[in-house]
From TrEMBL:
This is Low affinity iron permease family protein. The keyword Membrane applies. It comes from Sphingomonas chungangi. The chain crosses the membrane at residues 12-35, 47-64. InterPro entries: Iron_permease_Fet4. One of its GO terms (biological process) is transmembrane transport. Pfam families: Iron_permease. Keywords: Membrane, Transmembrane, Transmembrane helix.
Amino acid sequence: MDLFFTRVSGRIASFAGQPVTFIVAFLLIIIWGGFGPVSHYSDTWQLIVNTSTTIITFLMVFLIQNSQNRDAAAMQAKLDELIRAVDKARGTFIAIEHLTDKQIQEIRTALEKDCHETPDKYEGKEATVQTSVDRLLARY
């Protein structure tokens, strides 16, 4: 069942993210709107779009969440493997995604503090970051 749901949800999420899907949905709304005057803007006319969009949205939330969860888990596994494989990386960071938001924020704060207190250890990364950020902002 898991493999089937993974395949179906992946395909539907991929299809839903395509420009052609947006165009089809947009055209369906235009067609629905065109029938408004013909049906004298009846309750049934309104109910059709309200019900169909509610059902589609409800189901898509679960499919997209499944797809995002799978992508995040795969990314986390890849990052954990990189941490494990790099000699100077701290293995204690593996699986920190299971910590609370507060604990993760404390780790981030400590890392940033460590970076500022021992700049020679990081060989000017802060200056490099600032230069990169300035260059990025200058484009916009």
